Write a sequence for this structure.
């Protein structure tokens, strides 16, 4: 009798997932690639809305499906969500039957597709929440509370919570939100964002260092991430204007970037430089060339509930001390790591000056503490072990019905 354990299979639905060879969200390829005893695949959109280009994934674990294209927050964006949900569900049904369908927000149509695919395949359904929709849309002004659309999305949110076998959240602070929504505590699993420090060693042999990409005077301070309204980068430009003795580099893209570039030019902010998005592999090989990382967000009530920002873990994994203007979990992490400081939301300049004034040895020691904290608590290896337990327990405790 063959006693070898059958390898299990999980399919991840994430419209915006990216392979490591591209810029953007690589959470799932980094986590699922560290699982043991599981075969996995990621169903992503065949069009990248950040770069407005086709996504030709060079990772065999990626399956791409066609979606309609969009450039703004209008009906075409919703149509893109709908076409992704339909085609992602089809992709799951056409492939080998999964033990688990793992569907990730922010938009809620992806989890709907995940639930339907899991039901038709008689698989377990895991709902991952990376952004609290529709609460985040209300907080950022895109949706009016108690409007018909808000009530509809709120009902859909609760419907999904009831039907998920497990709900994975990225921010520990969200537990109270889910308790208020009537979700039993035992259904929730916290699987934080994170970064693998060993992946963030400088690679001047492969990538041009940051200090050769921009002229540097004083300290080199970096922001790497999306350039959207919620990121609060106009607050950062306010601070840049007040700290002309140091150099700032902003890496990334987003709807706000043209306005940010135009403002910097109009105000003569010669100490700030804008770089395009770079593949995650390249970002990891250059980030540590800076002196300080900047974690900045516009104030939004949704962040009072909790946050788990990838860029914060990236900075710490790269050995950078961090200036942060977001209270809550980011502040708690920096305090626990003793690797930076948190300032009031609108007062970045004070923190930037204070950290930049430290002696190089103190900055380096702060960076080492942050890197050690991530390695011990929030590395991809540590976090993937939590995900492994979630999936193993789910399938072992409640076996999926065989077709």
């Amino acid at each position: 009798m063959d006693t070898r354990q059958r390898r299990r299979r999980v399919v991840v639905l994430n419209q915006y997932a990216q392979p490591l060879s591209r810029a953007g969200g690589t959470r799932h390829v980094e986590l699922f690639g560290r699982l043991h005893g599981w075969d996995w695949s990621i169903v992503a959109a065949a069009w990248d809305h950040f770069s407005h280009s086709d996504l030709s994934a060079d990772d065999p674990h990626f399956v791409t499906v066609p979606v309609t294209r969009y450039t703004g927050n209008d009906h075409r964006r919703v149509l893109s969500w709908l076409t992704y949900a339909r085609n992602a569900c089809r992709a799951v049904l056409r492939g080998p039957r999964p033990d688990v369908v793992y569907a990730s927000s922010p938009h809620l149509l992806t989890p709907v597709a995940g639930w339907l695919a899991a039901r038709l395949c008689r698989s377990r359904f895991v709902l991952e929440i990376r952004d609290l929709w529709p609460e985040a849309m209300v907080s950022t002004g895109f949706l009016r509370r108690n409007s018909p659309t808000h009530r509809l999305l709120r009902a859909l949110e609760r419907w999904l919570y009831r039907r998920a076998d497990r709900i994975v959240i990225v921010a520990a602070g969200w537990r109270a939100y889910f308790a208020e929504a009537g979700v039993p505590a035992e259904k929730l699993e916290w699987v934080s964002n994170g970064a693998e420090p060993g992946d963030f060693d400088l690679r001047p042999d492969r990538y041009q260092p940051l200090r050769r990409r921009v002229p540097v005077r004083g300290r080199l301070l970096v922001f790497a991430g999306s350039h959207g309204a919620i990121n609060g980068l106009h607050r950062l430009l306010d601070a840049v204007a007040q700290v002309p003795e140091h150099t700032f580099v902003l890496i990334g893209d987003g709807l706000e970037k043209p306005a940010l570039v135009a403002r910097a030019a109009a105000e003569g902010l010669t100490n700030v430089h804008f770089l395009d998005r770079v593949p995650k592999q390249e970002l990891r090989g250059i980030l540590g060339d800076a002196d300080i990382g900047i974690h900045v967000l516009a104030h939004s009530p949704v962040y009072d509930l909790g946050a788990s920002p990838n860029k914060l873990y990236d900075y710490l994994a790269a050995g950078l001390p961090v200036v942060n203007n977001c209270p809550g979990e980011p502040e708690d992490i920096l305090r626990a790591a003793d690797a930076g400081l948190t300032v009031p939301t609108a007062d970045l300049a004070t923190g930037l000056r204070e950290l930049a004034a430290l002696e190089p040895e103190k900055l380096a020691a702060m960076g080492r503490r942050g890197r050690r904290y991530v390695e011990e608590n929030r590395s991809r290896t540590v976090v993937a072990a939590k995900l492994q337990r979630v999936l193993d327990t789910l399938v072992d405790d409640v076996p999926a019905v065989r077709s």
